[in-house]
Amino acid sequence: MLRMMLRPRWVLALIAALGIAAGFALLAQWQVDRAVEQATVVERPTEEVRPFGEVVRPDGPTEQAATGQRVSVTGTIVPGDTVLVQGRLNDGVAGWWVVAHLEVTDAAPGGLPVALGWAADEATALEVLAEVDRAAASGGELEVVGRFLPSEAPVAPAEDEDPQAMTTVAVAHLINVWADYDDRPVYFGYVTATEPATGLDAIDSPPPLQEAELNWLNVFYAVEWVVFAGFAVFLWYRLVKDAVQREREEAELEADEAAAATAAEAPADATRD
Questions:
Q1: Are 244 and 9 in contact (CB under 8 A)?
Q2: Interacting residues of 135 by C-beta distance below 8 A, sequence separation 6+
Q3: Can you tell me whether residue 196 is helix, strand or coil?
Q4: Less packed terminus of the chain by CB within 10 Å, N or C?
Q5: How far apart are CA 235 and CA 166, in angstroms?
Q6: Which among 148, 142, 89 has a CA at the least distance from the CA of 119?
């Protein structure tokens, strides 16, 4: 087969196939470059404090545009509905969040969980929780500036843990803990306060990552061109292989015919003798 490949006709065919493959490879490179150039970074002004009512509505899913947005919201804290959420990390250290129930007053009415801060030990968190409930009992509105995040999924505690223990800020769980909260509007997300309540540390709540989105159609076209380039070389190889196979079959056929002719001449020679 190597001899067949070295014949001028097939060498020229190989050069043509490689030229075509190179052209396809250049087209693939061009498509990849276009995909990278057209990659768009979805930039959202998450660090600009926006009115809460412009960002989210109660009783609806949290839109991507609202996730991680810093907001300003005003409402009244409902005494007795403040809870602790354990196992929350702050700079890699596990601790407790104090999460209050805020009834929004400067936007569409609804219940909104607000994480007021972080404590490294449970005793401190409980002290702040009690103080938050005492302050809430006297009434008055509270303005909270912080980052809005979507509701987390509820997690059932282990068998040896307190069945009422919370490890996530799950709105579905909280509305079952809040007193008399059946069939009332609720926001399916929560706010981490920038300024912590007295006695707590600020919650580490970094802005969301800005991700670049590739143009996947261009990437798909690039893969197609690579496949075409490989097919051009494979087609040349297949043609050479088929030509070698044909020559072998023709050589075997000629050999069989020669052998048959020799066999036919042998009896005639024997008769003349």
A1: no
A2: 77
A3: coil
A4: C
A5: 64
A6: 89
Q: What is the number of helices (H) and of strands (E) in the chain?
A: 6, 9
Query: DSSP character for 168?
Result: S
Is residue 50 exposed (0-12), middle (13-18) or buried (19+ Cβ within 10 Å)? middle
Place of tokens 């959202």: 44
What type of residue sits at position 112? Answer: L
220: left (phi > 0), else alpha (psi -120 to 50), else beta?
Answer: alpha
Phi-psi region of 117 (alpha: psi -120 to 50; beta: other; left: phi over 0): left
Do residues 199 and 124 lie in contact, with contact meaning Cβ atoms separated by under 8 Å? yes
Can you tell me which residue has the tokens 């401190």? 124
**Residue 185 has which token pair?**
């509007």
Burial class of residue 166 in the structure, from the number of CB atoms within 10 Å of its CB (0-12 exposed, 13-18 middle, 19+ buried)? buried
For 267, the 3-state DSSP assignment is helix
